[in-house]
Known about the structure:
This is Endoglucanase. This protein is mainly α.
Amino acid sequence: MRLCALHFLGATLFAVVVILKLPGFVSSSDHDYRDALSKAIQFFEGQRSGFLPQDQRLSWRANSGLSDGWTYNTDLTGGYYDAGDNVKFGFPMAFTTTMLAWSVIEFGDSMPGGELRNALVAIRWATDYLLKTVAQPNRIFVQVGDPNADHNCWERPEDMDTIRTVYAVDAPNPASEVAGETAAALAAASMAFKSSDPGYSDTLLRNAVKAFEFADTYRGAYSDNSDIRSGVCPFYCDFDGYQDELLWGAAWLRRATQDGSFHDYITNNGKTLGAEESINEFGWDNKHAGLNVLVSKEVIENNMYDLQSYKASADSFMCTLIPESSSSHIEYTPAGLIYKPGGSNLQHVTSITFLLLVYANYLAKTSQSLNCGNINVGPSWLRQQAKKQVDYILGDNPMGLSYMVGYGDRYPQRIHHRGSSLPSIKDHPQFIACKEGSVYFNSTGPNPNVLVGALVGGPGEDDVYDDDRVDFRKSEPTTYINAPFVGVLAYFVANPNPN
């Protein structure tokens, strides 16, 4: 079992479920996907570190982390706090950025103009920071903030007085997973900005190549580095190996550059780097399912048959999501929510739902379907299954509860999030020290500040959610739960009743 920044991520495989039936609760067909999209993007403003802009919408937040990087005499301000804490973990932040960018690449045309702009702003808040992390030759900054000290406190980011340790990896020490994911994030973002800001897009792409070279030249896991291990483990330790991030970064660079050398890389290194392993998971640590879907676009649309093994793995992954399939090994709750034992569950739901929609679009362009042994499944089924997951999250569930804060009439009130649970610095300007925040953590009252758009960890395998700040597995939001959901909601803004 994995611990990651106050939320667990299990390593167990999904269990077999034969029949997917929803219980007797009323399903809504009139969710306001546009409102949900707006809120899902707005959430990222609540996670901002650094100097906040004048148009900051979540006004209960203020500047924080303004001296980040001073011990290296460098500017590492900005970026996002990953969850309900005040640490900037580079690994999940880069994955969050990749997924936000992929959301814009695939579904930006479905975003209302103002929300597309807001999504790009959310991406740029991350990429401006990620560019700083790779600005120095042969070095990558992978984290700011001592998580052990931070997790021992309950205080606002504006007040934090815990040590802001800077974790850097210098060559020839490896950091393949963080550098590889950073390369993917910058490459994907370069595509997202290509039409609106070509100069910035070029800068992102140049640095993506540089980050990938670091990842590939000095192969190995950053969490194996004894100098930084205590700061990254067990929070965002590399549990599934760095090999998938190398392929993931190369695949994004292939898509962003159309450079044949990256095509050769993912073709020649697929087996040696384990492209076909652990294909039933997709998240900040394990990229295999997302990698296979991403590369499949080349096979489906451009007939790149030397990459056929990636498509076969993507097909296999999709078949595991189909309850009636003979190959099924995905677990669902009784009410139909994808469930992966071990911790913050909605991170799996939103990322898998994103892949369902992306793959459905790829298949639909060439009128293809999936052969899952005993049944054939077309894009329509994948989209319908995605809609079930989205509507469940937004309130069509036995609890009648929206798991997005601020959306609908009923949503979690006691989320595991420091800034949201403590009085705003604007309402309570007096300093609240490390342990002084414990009274707010232990309070049974609702959080005073609404973290609009935050998706929490979600209900348990029995569809039950206790609105409890202490139960971080269920009540803590993270950036990487929200990021893929941005693309998912954008799709349903344009296609509320897909077929």
